Design the sequence.
């Protein structure tokens, strides 16, 4: 058993690790190549006026102050110092920005999911909504709805909302579309024979919904939740761009690009990737718990 | 028999609702001419609202023809635009909050050349180049590593994970590398569209059944023959669904990347700067252009899929 597990692990983990190692190597190679011109011009021309060795060149390119492409260890060092050297509530600590973005993402995600489920339930039970509204919701999947974000910010801003509310609204409407589409499919998943069984039990519509439709919709709901939370992170980050917001990963990226702080941009990028991965993993974890408690294997 | 009855009752409802709507639109004073909306007109608005609801419900109840569904959605959309127009005018909603559809349409006409320039910059340059390059690269890499199971097992989990990562965030880096103009946006789009296409290509190439593969083998077909005649055709539905997803992703990527810095042209630039100047009608105009582009691209890809993979069961069943 342990042997088999170890073999399976090697089968699955080894290729991924090899690919990651290749990416790291390429990254270092790219850093040397891309930073070379700047390193020669700005550093080596002054420190080694009589010519420099390859080792000098490599070590300079990998440790520049404003590199074109920072080396991985520079990004890690910047991340580490921002996480350790500053208190959690300082804007210099990246975790503070992660928390700001995660907060609006999560608020929007929860609201959007609830709204999506409610609307899907209404659509399944109303032929009018099904015919009139659902085609528009499906069509909206082909439209870049994220582009409305600045309008939402302006409208909510002039109505006096600020802080989390506008950002959460944008995350909410991005989460809402995929959840609605998947839930309509899921709530319709029960076979005719099952709905007729509920009917012979004299189950009311509400009971049929709770006992049959909702449980059979869960396998449709969770994949859409994973899509939704990823869209929510993007929405929350974009919402931080045009407001001149001081906090959040999106604002951090924007200030980094204003001041040409490449290492800072890369750290924010890594943190936003980790935030996306972490939130998706959390949703996947909840999925596993729920499905297990329902007896699925 | 029953359907005839439903249709028979439908026309009076539609006609009454339409006449009432026209009368209300005619009676509503131009925005800003009166202080408070007249009470009679508000009552009229509610009445038209009820009539509109009834008409949508009756059209939705129709059965039998395929286009009835489309007609319901179209009617619903038309009513939304109508109430948007009349409501905004009647209650004198400030233009900064919500411009009336007629004003947006006027803006689309008046600033058509501006928006056309934005369209060329964002869609024809950044989106089209990025989408074609990203999808093409994803496809080529997918086919190339098809014979290397080790690489597949290494790349596939990582490629799937990228869908959870906000890849748009590389925009500031791309702006630094490739400058403010469209190549930096195309680079963001390449990165965003590459991974979905890679995943879809790998999945599509695996989708040929064992039976078909063995048949090809019994014909003594080599790797290339099998790839061209069996596995790539089988992969078409996967490739097209990735192309469709990528079309939307590419539009989002290019527009959002322009929020991070762009020359003074482009849909994303227009949206962010005009929103900051509170010129909301032009913002809505740019969004209309983006939305129409997205839907048209999707429709085009669906048509293309029907032409290319007409034999596939998923298309024949439609």
Sequence:
């Amino acid at each position: 058993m342990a042997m088999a597990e170890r073999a399976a692990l090697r089968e699955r983990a080894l290729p991924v690790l090899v690919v990651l190692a290749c990416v790291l190597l390429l990254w270092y190679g790219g850093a040397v190549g891309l930073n070379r011109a700047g390193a020669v011009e700005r550093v080596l021309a002054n420190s080694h006026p009589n010519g420099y060795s390859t080792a000098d060149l490599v070590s300079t390119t990998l440790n520049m102050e404003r590199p074109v492409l920072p080396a991985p260890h520079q990004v890690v060092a910047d991340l580490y110092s921002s996480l350790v050297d500053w208190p959690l509530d300082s804007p210099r600590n990246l975790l503070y920005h992660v928390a700001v973005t995660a907060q609006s993402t999560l608020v929007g995600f929860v609201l959007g999911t609830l709204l999506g489920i409610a609307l899907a339930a209404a659509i399944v039970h109303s032929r009018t909504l099904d015919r009139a509204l659902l085609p528009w919701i499906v069509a909206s999947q082909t439209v870049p709805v994220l582009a409305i974000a600045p309008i939402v910010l302006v409208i909510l801003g002039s109505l006096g909302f600020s802080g989390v509310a506008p950002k959460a609204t944008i995350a909410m409407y991005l989460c809402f579309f995929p959840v609605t589409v998947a839930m309509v499919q899921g709530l319709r998943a029960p076979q005719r024979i099952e709905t007729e069984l509920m009917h012979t039990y004299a189950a009311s519509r509400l009971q049929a919904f709770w006992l049959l439709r909702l449980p059979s919709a869960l396998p449709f709901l969770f994949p859409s939740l994973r899509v939704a939370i990823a869209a929510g992170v993007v929405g929350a980050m974009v919402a931080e761009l045009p407001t001149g917001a001081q906090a959040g990963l999106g604002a951090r990226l924007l200030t980094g690009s204003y001041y040409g702080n490449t290492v800072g941009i890369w750290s924010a990028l890594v943190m936003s990737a980790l935030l996306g991965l972490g939130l998706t993993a959390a949703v996947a974890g909840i999925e596993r718990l729920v499905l297990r408690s329902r007896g699925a294997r | 028999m029953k359907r005839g009855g439903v249709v028979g009752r439908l026309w009076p409802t539609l006609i009454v609702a339409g006449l009432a709507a026209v009368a209300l639109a005619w009676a509503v004073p131009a925005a800003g001419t009166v202080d408070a909306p007249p009470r009679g007109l508000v009552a009229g608005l509610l009445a038209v609202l009820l009539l509109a609801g009834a008409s949508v419900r009756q059209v939705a109840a129709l059965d039998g023809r395929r286009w009835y569904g489309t007609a319901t959605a179209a009617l619903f959309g038309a009513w939304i635009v109508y109430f948007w127009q009349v409501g905004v005018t009647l209650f004198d909603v400030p233009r900064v909050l919500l411009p009336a559809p007629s004003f947006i349409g006027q803006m689309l006409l008046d600033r058509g050349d501006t928006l056309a320039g934005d369209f060329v910059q964002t869609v024809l340059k950044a989106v089209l180049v990025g989408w074609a390059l990203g999808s093409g690269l994803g496809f080529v890499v997918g086919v190339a590593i098809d014979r290397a199971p080790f690489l597949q097992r290494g790349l596939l989990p990582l490629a799937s994970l990228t869908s959870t990562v906000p890849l748009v965030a590389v925009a500031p880096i791309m702006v630094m590398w490739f400058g403010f103009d469209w190549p930096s946006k195309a680079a963001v789009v390449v990165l965003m569209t590459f991974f979905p296409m890679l995943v879809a290509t790998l999945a599509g190439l695996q989708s040929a059944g064992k039976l078909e593969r063995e048949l090809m083998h019994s014909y003594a077909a080599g790797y290339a023959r099998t790839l061209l005649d069996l596995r790539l055709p089988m992969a078409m539905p996967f490739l097209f669904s990735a192309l469709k997803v990528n079309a939307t992703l590419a539009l989002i990527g290019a527009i959002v990347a322009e929020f991070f810095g762009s020359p003074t042209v482009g849909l994303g630039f227009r949206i962010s700067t005009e929103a900051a100047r509170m010129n909301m009608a032009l913002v809505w105009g740019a969004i209309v252009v983006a939305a129409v582009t997205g839907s048209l691209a999707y429709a085009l890809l669906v048509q293309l899929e029907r032409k290319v993979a007409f034999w596939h069961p998923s298309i024949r069943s439609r």
